[in-house]
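Let's sit down with a protein and look at its sequence and fold side by side. We need material for that, and I hope you will provide a protein of your own picking. Once you have written the record down, we can walk along the chain together.

***
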Amino acid sequence: MPSIALYYPWMHFQDDNWLKLALLTWDRIVRMRPEMVEDRDRELVRQLRAESDFIVEAAPSPTVLTTVAETFSEILDADPHRIVERYGLRHSFREELHPSPHDLRQSTDWLGYEPPVPQGTWDMVRSSYMLRLHTGASDSKLGTGLSEKLVSMGLAEPSGGSWVGMHPKLGSIYLAALTDVMARSEMLSPTTDDLRMHKAVGALSQLTKLLFDDHARVPAIEHTESAYMHVALRTVIEPDNLAEVPVAKLIRFREAHRDELAAFHEHVAGLTADLQAIAEVENLEVASAHLKSLYESQTRPQLNELRKALRAQGIESSAGTLVQKVNLNAAAGTLLGSVAAAGGQLAVAGAAVAVTLVPYIAGRVEARRQQVGDSPVAYLLAADRELSGRTLLGALQRRTGR
């Protein structure tokens, strides 16, 4: 799976906890946000932009825009009456007497919801909420030619500056197709924090069905590999705990464990056949249950084995600090013998201990490093120990006898 994600469909991230998981899942995440758009990022996003290279701003290339525009134009030209009847601004809201943004959010007859500010606009004349797309500039999401065609057909209208407004469903389908083409062109993995949106993978090839078939088949999960990683991370880092972890700590964590994340990516890639089967599931609850079952059968046992192996070596982690439990029986031949040979002289005995015990501990630490380095799930162990908050709590409980 590509290690860089492409966020869609909006210009601003909608869920901070989702973004924290994304930070622990991907090397980078690309989003399409025009430079001239007002910065409405929340503090978490601004901190990530300032202190890391995780978020990358990029615009669709002219080739990507042209590819999507050509396919859209073919459909528009093939049956203009049908698409205008369904999405034309003079017709598409006629049965919605008094719709509101809340109604659109709760609607179940299309995948999508009220576009967030500033990507949406309320049309007082039609009493409807429309999706706005940036067009005409170098960092636009909609090419000038297709934009003009949509306006001339009554499928879009100017919405101030370099923006056009259109029916939210038509706009969401367009953004899914745009994401599909850009992801394939730039070797990116589409990902979204809006599960109600049209899925991007394969959207261009299914464009006609998405536009005209209200019951078009849409998989419940967009990208099963990243969803699986989220399931694994949520298992070791409970959502409530993750919300409390400072973003600066998450940034340090991902920098310190890049190699282990790469190894975990390879582990997930090895589950491709199972994940492809889950990708066919259309019910979100069922798909989520399959992902959890796969984790319990394929990944958790390896994590438990790694923990067991480390405990057998007498090595634990408390509050992110390595603790070495020295096995005196194993060290007796050197440690205790050195003290005895010193004839009870503490200074000499101390030097002897340093000479014999330090190499012993170093060897054990090296064994731990090798054990962890060989495990494809070491990344999850690190997340559990450094981000979950459970290790310190457990240590305190053991010390107090609770």
